[in-house]
Amino acid sequence: MKFDILTIFPESIKEYINTSILKIAQDKGLVEINVHNLRDWAKDKHRTTDDTPFGGGPGMVMKVEPIFNALKDLKEENTVVVLTSPKGEKLVQSKLQELSEKDDLHLIIICGRYEGLDQRIHDNLVDYEFSIGDYVLSGGELPALVLVEGVTRLVSGVLGNEESLVDESFNEDKLDYPQYTKPSTFNGWNVPNVLLSGNHKDITNWREQNRGK
Ligand SMILES: C[S@@+](CC[C@H](N)C(=O)[O-])C[C@H]1O[C@@H](n2cnc3c(N)ncnc32)[C@H](O)[C@@H]1O
What we know:
CATH topology of the largest domain: Alpha/beta knot
Distance between the termini: 32 Å
Bound molecules: S-adenosylmethionine
Strand content: 15-25%
CATH superfamily of the largest domain: SPOUT methyltransferase, trefoil knot domain
Shape: elongated
Radius of gyration: 21 Å
Strand order of the largest sheet: 2-1-6-5-7
């Protein structure tokens, strides 16, 4: 599985992908994550990736040419070009699961900035647009990381204990049950007695009853 992330702020992504689960997944050779500076595909001497909007209005719009050139270089036979966008399809766990099951998956993820992208990119160059929620961030870097991490942790062999995926929130349209760890009493706050009982049947029942929906 391979991710190529296109951004004008590569440093903001590099630290995160070299931490914890994403680092482990790369070290195990289960995923490849490349971060590219979109400016490398801008042809002018200032490496410009944005310009003023036709028709006027505030802010800047990301230009079509650098993204077109980057895709030309990075695309492979099976590539899915993905755009981070508040206008996209809302990302849900079942979509992450679907993507994680495709071994030969290659995603190029475009991180927008400013007022967004020239509409011709949406219309002609992108296969899938996703949003991480009904709010507006300043850029697509965090949404790109959400997608990469959400998919990667579901890839077989990435998590040390895959059982932890079984009862997770959003599986079977339910939420995870409450978890507690030592000490059993802290500051007058007690762990439910059933969890200390050692009775596995009662514990399973309690957990099932306490999963949210
Ligand atoms: C400031 S936003 C642009 C917002 C755009 N003018 C609008 O109102 O829809 C800049 C970039 O951040 C990213 N972005 C912001 N919020 C997002 C969200 N909720 N989900 C996915 N991407 C988002 C997109 O790549 C977007 O092009």
